[in-house]
Design a protein that fits this description.
alpha/beta; Rossmann fold; 2 domains; eight-stranded mixed β-sheet; two-stranded parallel ribbon; 10 helices; globular
Length: about 325
């Protein structure tokens, strides 16, 4: 859409930075107090001109303005380099953050998501039905509200939320190593991953061939990541949040897990049905706190479910900043 009377848009950044209100768009920006997202798109040499960079830094330093860095690729002028307008999903994600109160600014949160895979032989592994959706949505919501988020993801095929640092892992041991590595730089840890409790005691070097006889598999325990975190010397300096996927006595078992592992909060899910939980688009559950809080979380799509969880945990997250 072309706005009548709009001056050369390449000059817009400089005009806004210097307070010029000499066309409709610049006047609107000057007259309003709403958040503004700036998406610069131009030739690479122009983008890296020191004067352009100075203007962009000046706008980005203003609380009201956010600057989305351009992508790299082939530009309209034929040059390959930085300056492309980001794809619409990236712009939409940046808009969501610009329009969201930054209540968690400065809070460092590590979120785990997805399943793990425990190898039996070179072609087979033990795993579970987790898709990682819940953890990815939590990471998205936290980042949109200003938190610095590290997402430790099991083997899932999902886009990384905007503004989130992602660490990919596959096994329970790799998950444990990554979470423990992130611990010292985290104010809060949310363990939403469905980490395997057991792995094959022995991994065959070659594919196990089919025979006529029955077979059994010896299993051994994996690391209990939540329990290990809860027992650390600096545990009281952090906020520790877990998930409990149960098929019966959901609240009671979640309360027991919270106490045994020294958690601050736990989200309990009933995964016995096919309508919510693993592999579905919706979730429901109960948020349980160490001080005895029991909050029912109504069934809803997982993006909204993640928003609701963070709404309830926002005060606790800010308290450890």
């Amino acid at each position: 859409m072309r706005i009548a009377g709009l001056k050369d848009p390449r000059l817009l950044i400089a005009r806004i930075r210097n307070g010029f209100a000499d066309d409709l768009l610049a006047t609107t920006v000057m007259a309003c107090q709403t958040p503004v997202l700036v998406c610069p798109s131009m030739n690479t040499e122009m983008l890296h001109n020191p004067l352009v960079q100075e203007n962009l830094r000046a706008l980005d330093a203003q609380e009201r303005f956010s600057v989305l860095s351009p992508d790299a690729g082939e530009l309209a002028c034929g040059v390959i380099g930085e300056g492309r307008l980001p794809d619409p999903p990236e712009i939409i994600a940046a808009l969501r953050k610009a329009l969201t109160p930054q209540e968690l600014q400065g809070v460092r949160v590590t979120v785990s998501a997805g399943p793990t895979q425990e190898d039996l032989d070179p072609v087979r592994f033990l795993s579970n039905r987790s898709t990682g959706t819940m953890g990815f949505e939590l990471a998205r919501v936290l980042a949109e509200r200003g938190a610095h988020v590290t997402l430790i993801a099991g083997p899932v095929h999902r886009e990384t939320p905007a503004g989130v640092t992602r660490v990919d892992v596959r096994t329970a041991q790799e998950m444990s190593n990554a979470v423990n590595a992130a611990w010292s730089e985290s104010d809060a840890v949310i363990m939403s991953a469905a980490v395997a409790d057991y792995r094959p005691a022995q991994q065959a070097a070659e594919k196990i061939k089919k025979g006529d006889e029955d077979r059994s598999i010896a299993l051994e325990r994996t690391s209990d990541i939540l329990a290990e975190l809860g027992a650390r010397d600096d545990r009281d300096e952090k906020l520790l949040i877990g998930f409990a996927a149960e098929t019966g006595q959901v609240v009671e078992r979640a309360q027991d897990k919270l106490l045994r592992k020294g958690l601050d909060w736990i989200i309990a899910n009933d995964v016995s049905g096919a309508q919510i939980g693993f592999g579905t688009g919706e979730n429901a559950g109960t948020l349980i706190g160490r001080a005895g809080e029991i909050i029912q979380l109504e069934r809803m799509p997982k993006p909204g479910f993640a928003e609701t969880i963070i709404d309830h945990l926002s005060d606790a997250l800010r308290s450890v900043r």
